[in-house]
Amino acid sequence: MTRTRSLPIAALTTLAAAALLAACGGGGDDGPVAVALEFGAVSGTTPVTCNQRLTALGTTSVDAQVKDLRFYVSNVAMIRSDGARVALELGANDDWNHTATDGNRLTLVDLEDATGSCAAGTAATNAFVRGSVPAGRYVGVEFSVGVPSALNHSDYATAIKPLDIQAMAWSWQSGRKFAKVEVTDPDGATGSWTAKTFNFHLGSTGCTGNPATGEIVTCTAANRMAVSFPSFDPATQKIVLDIQALTAGNDITVNQAGAPGCMSGGTDPECAAVFQTIGIDWAADGTGSGEPVSSTAQTLLKLVAK
To answer: What is the enclosing helix (H) or strand (E) of 294?
Structure first.
């Protein structure tokens, strides 16, 4: 039977790491090593829940509450100490994870729990991407926030899990919302917000082709967010989405134009600041490429101590 061991902590010295490997049966064992990436949400430094009143959001520093908070993480790779990228192999397909026959790997991270201001969501949650890699010394991680193109365009009603969720379906040629983060006026109908909800919906735009008839869908802006943490220890750190960072460049109480908030529109004024935060090329005249500026350009996700 193949043994599964915990990931060696990257910060260990070479001697300590060697001792750890020896204790587990020796450095020559290339059996799988279990990895668990934990995700969460913060507003600045404050952990976020659906029942919490958040403060100091947007350019007008208003209070808000989370209404929805979900995103797809795909094709995670651990970064080895020699710089090599090693695919994190997921376990069996289930409600949250899917490995396609072409090798694409996908996990839905769902941080809303259908309580409080998230009442329209789902009670089930998932804060982890779990998998395994061959034994080795790993120092970092990289992945995409998004659904690979080959998996993106399908009817949610007949799709495999976790692509079968209506709330994450989008009208762009049967595509998906790669990320769905929504914050709302904490005082509801009596509150001061002109636009009651600020939406961040990330997804591919400018898509053509009908998947229902077998056509290959192409999109002018893929809008998949590249994330890389060259120094990361899953034993002591988790990856969090910062709502303050997401809203920092907009007055979230007023919709300037286009869809409320930023729904990845190529000319939507709220998307200028949002796309800078997520590190994807965007231009006010609609000519943005939709490609990552770089793997380290985004500031929406960050590392915090567990």
So the answer is: none
Residue type, 278: I
pTM for this prediction: 0.89
At 17, give phi and psi (nearest 5°).
-65, -40
**DSSP-derived 3-state class of residue 267:** coil
Q: How far is CA 41 from the centre of its chain?
A: 11
Total residue count of the chain as it appears in this document: 306
- What is the spatial distance between Cα 233 and Cα 7, in angstroms, rounded to a whole number? 9
Average pLDDT of each block of 10 consecutive residues along the chain (306 residues)?
43 34 41 95 96 96 98 99 98 98 98 96 98 97 97 94 96 90 95 95 94 90 97 98 98 93 93 97 94 93 97
Six-digit token string for 203: 């997804």
Between CA 230 and CA 233 the distance in angstroms is 10
Say if residues 243 and 117 touch (Cβ distance below 8 Å): no
Tell me how far apart the alpha carbons of residues 221 and 203 are, in angstroms, rounded to a whole number: 9
Query: E strands within 14-127?
Result: 32-43, 46-47, 54-57, 62-80, 85-87, 89-90, 97-99, 105-110
Q: Is 114 left (phi over 0), alpha (psi -120 to 50) or beta?
A: left
Burial of residue 261 (number of CB atoms within 10 Å: 0-12, 13-18, 19+): buried
